[in-house]
Write a structure and sequence with these properties.
Blueprint (H helix, E strand, L loop, with lengths): L4 H10 L5 H9 L2 H15 L14 H21 L4 H11 L4 H16 L2 H12 L5 E4 L15 E5 L4 E5 L7 E2 L10 E10 L2 E11 L12 E5 L15 E5 L2 E4 L8 E3 L5 E3 L9 H31 L1 E2 L9 E2 L4 H36 L6 H29 L11 H8 L9 H20 L14 H6 L13 H23 L5 H7 L1 H24 L8 H19 L1 H6 L5 H18 L3 H6 L5 H4 L10 H10 L12 H17 L1
Parallel strand pairs: 1-5, 2-5
Antiparallel strand pairs: 2-3, 3-9, 4-8, 5-6, 7-8, 10-11, 12-13
This protein binds ligand LJ27NJHV and flavin-adenine dinucleotide.
């Protein structure tokens, strides 16, 4: 059955004022990436092994086994099709459920590459890349996650046997959370306190074998398992996040990852002259990938909400004629279009961050560590900003879809449940923003000493101007001038950072000031991260962009992104004196105009994400708009509808009815 709603999307598509094909390439990053992504998405969508529409109805054991089957199928297909690394990781991405492959390829392998010596890489990487071993990354403990320096697990060197003894001294020291650890991994990189000659030498990574390669049973001294069912149905429960306790497990000395610190046969600890934070390198790498991924999750939710908002009609007709598409309501637009703009903003900042990460990596290889603090601040800050916004946005998209958004068949509940831990893993978002704040306060204090800021803090070099400037916006159109927008964002961020630095100096110690002012510091950090996103978006739309109308659409989205933030944080823009209340009103007026300009293009702007119906996994977001028939078909497939009279009728419904009948006769 095809209902009238299908016409709505065709109609919407006919209104587009830009070349959707060209926008697809901009979104993908290049024609090459578009081709690879498109091909891999279609391979997954057309393979019944990768079916995912039954996930929320499976019990934990079935669900987990189902994921094991899919991960094995990914490896099989990757080998059969002789996929490149780029292609294989896209293929795995579109399978769209957390699984041990992510931790193996995304953390275990990078940890060895980043922290292992050449010799260690030669030994372990071939085993890992042929998947003769499966690895994971165990840093977090039951009692310690954010505070890495507080980890309790010990790795004590025993010079008699030339081994390390890996030990969990307490319940709180059990490793707890690592993905892939609970049931699958054969090996792990464990982070532990290095102890040699009776002295502690800091936290380092150690490769430990967990399970037999013959029968998968845990090796002696290892107690291991899954930590239990997590939030949401389906969602992250496809993953075996695990615990492990080490009872004096012995490993050879050369299983310590020794690129930055070597322990000799005699137990001497030799530090190389690189910053000790290099041991955190895997986290920096993964944070950078998480920023790129945020735009995928956000755009997926927005795609569902935009298409459904074009289909859904409510009110607007007194005589039972055609009702108004909810997408036409300004309130719907004001909630949805900033999220659409944010998806594009995060896509571009994610691409930029990839570049920054590659640049820093190249410098580190040449022993230039000067850009490491900035790389840390950018990856930490943008990871925090983009994941927090994305998690909130998915929930907002659910509400934008009304009641049907709450159905699992909308795809949104599971997307939220699977995405929201991104605000916690790889660094709690508040903890990471405090790292950014620390970097900003340091940058501000160095200004006073005449040190020129570089990279993303270059704008702070314009200190005198940023402290005094008043916005020149005197009409709504002035808010379409990149210089006007940027100045407001930079002035707000700088003034907040300077206020924090000034106020901290009033305390007896910087630590006391930092602790007391942490709420303000977090706000200053967010403001700085928003400068980065806004300026990268502006830079992007100032480039040559091929395709009819593509640049114009991106400009509209760029200003929506910036102006909705001015509206959201108007308190800060006003209290720091960067803009006046009248200018805030003008910005809002411009924002309303921009919503009107996006409206005819909204469906095509989400089509540009090029998502298959398989990847979207949503009755509401289908490409053909056949929402109601799909909702109905999926309802009929629910296990509860397997029988007309439910299980439990005889035991629990009939007796209640009989009891009621007896009572009514009295
Ligand atoms: C053939 C088959 C083919 C098949 C193919 C299949 C392909 C599949 C491919 C799949 C690929 C998938 C990739 C996806 C990636 C993975 C998916 C992700 C899934 C989720 C995983 C989640 C994992 C985790 O959560 S791991 C645990 C993470 N834990 C944390 O993040 C802890 C957070 N805490 C910290 O980072 C630190 O404790 C911190 C920073 C809060 C404080 O540290 P510390 O106490 O040491 O420092 P401070 O005293 O605050 O600062 C001292 C100094 O150091 C600077 N600094 C801190 N951190 C860093 C850093 N990282 N880098 C550089 N500098 C740092 C800090 O700024 C200070 O500097 P000063 O100058 O002294 O101020
Ligand atoms: C799905 C998932 C997968 C994971 N995968 C892995 C993995 O593969 N390997 C691994 O090692 N770990 C993994 N983790 C663990 C994860 O990295 C940690 O949970 C994360 O780093 C947060 O640490 P925590 O749990 O100790 O939070 P806590 O630090 O206990 O946070 C609790 C609260 O305290 C606040 N807080 C903490 N410190 C401060 C501070 N200094 N100032 C202000 N507020 C503060 C936080 O903001 C938060 O609100 C995973 C976690 C999840 C949820």
């Amino acid at each position: 059955m095809v209902v009238a709603s299908v016409d709505n999307l065709a109609d919407e598509r006919s209104k587009a004022q830009f070349d959707v094909g060209a926008m697809k390439i901009v979104w993908a990053g290049s024609k090459h990436v578009f081709d690879v992504t498109d091909r891999m998405a279609r391979i997954v969508a057309s393979d019944p092994e990768f079916r995912k529409d039954n996930r929320t109805t499976l019990g934990r054991k079935e669900l987990f086994k189902n994921t094991l089957r899919k991960m094995a199928h990914v490896v099989k297909r990757a080998n059969e099709l002789r996929l490149t690394e780029e292609e294989a990781s896209k293929l795995r991405f579109f399978v769209d459920e957390p699984g041990y492959l992510d931790l193996h390829w995304g953390m275990f392998v990078p940890a060895i590459k980043g922290q292992g010596t050449e010799e260690q890489q030669e030994k372990w990487l071939p085993l890992a890349s042929r998947m003769e071993i499966i690895g994971c990354y165990a840093q977090t403990e039951l009692g310690h996650g954010s505070n890495v320096q507080g980890l309790e697990t010990t790795a004590t060197f025993d010079p008699k046997t030339d081994e390390f003894i890996i030990h969990s001294p307490s319940l709180t020291s059990y490793k707890w959370w690592p993905g892939g650890l609970g049931k699958v991994s054969t090996h792990v990189v464990v982070y532990a306190r290095l102890v040699s000659g009776g002295q502690e030498h800091g936290i380092y990574g150690f490769i430990v074998q967990l399970r037999s390669l013959d029968d998968h049973t845990p090796l002696p001294g290892i107690i291991i398992g899954d930590i239990g069912t997590k939030f949401g149905s389906g969602a992250y429960n496809t993953m075996d996040n695990g615990f492990v306790c080490f009872n004096r497990v012995r490993i050879p000395r050369n299983h310590m990852l020794m690129r930055f610190c070597q322990v000799t046969r005699e137990g001497n600890v030799c530090l190389s002259d690189v910053p000790k934070q290099m041991v955190y390198g895997t986290m920096v790498y993964v944070r950078q990938t998480i920023v790129s991924d945020a735009s995928w999750a956000l755009s997926r939710a927005v795609c569902i909400a935009v298409r459904y908002s074009a289909i859904r009609r409510q009110f607007g007709s007194q005589d039972r004629g055609i009702e108004t598409q909810v997408l036409d309501y300004k309130t719907q637009q004001s909630r949805l279009f900033p999220l659409l703009a944010s998806a594009y903003a995060f896509r571009f900042v994610g691409e930029w961050l990839k570049w920054l990460y590659a640049d820093v990596t190249e410098r580190l290889q040449a022993n230039d560590f000067s850009t490491l603090p900035e790389a840390h601040a950018c990856t930490a800050g943008l990871k925090s900003l983009t994941t927090s916004v994305t998690a909130d946005a998915i929930e907002e998209c659910r509400k934008l879809c009304g009641g049907h958004g709450y159905l699992c068949s909308s795809g949104l509940p599971e997307l939220f449940a699977v995405y929201v831990p991104a605000c916690t893993y790889e660094g709690d978002n508040v903890v990471l923003l405090l790292q950014v704040a620390r970097f900003l306060v340091k940058t501000v204090s160095r200004l006073a000493a005449g040190k020129k800021p570089v990279g993303t803090t270059t704008y702070m070099g314009n200190a005198e101007h940023l402290m005094q400037c008043k916005s020149s916006a005197s009409s709504p159109e002035d808010w379409l001038k990149p210089s006007v927008v940027l100045e407001a964002f930079e002035a707000r961020a700088f003034r907040l950072a300077v206020a924090c630095a000034r106020d901290i100096s009033k305390f007896s110690t910087p630590e006391a000031g930092f602790a007391e002012l942490s709420i303000d510091l977090v706000e200053a950090a967010i403001a700085h991260c928003e400068v980065i996103v806004v300026s990268r978006f502006i830079e992007k739309v100032q480039q040559d962009i091929p395709g009819d109308g593509v640049k114009e659409q991106l400009q509209i989205l760029c200003f929506i992104y910036a102006l909705h933030l001015i509206h959201k944080h108007s308190g800060e823009f006003l209290s720091t004196g960067c803009i006046t209340p009248e200018q805030a009103t003008l910005a809002n007026e411009q924002l309303r105009t921009l919503y009107g300009q996006v409206r005819p293009n909204a469906v095509s702007l989400v089509d540009a994400f090029n998502y298959t119906d398989h990847y979207l996994g949503s009755a509401l977001g289908r490409y053909d708009g056949n929402v109601y028939a799909t909702l109905y078909a999926q309802a009929l497939r629910d296990p509860l509808n397997d029988t007309v009279v439910p299980d439990g009728y005889e035991e629990f419904i009939r007796p209640v009815l009989k009891q009621t009948m007896r009572l009514s006769r009295l």
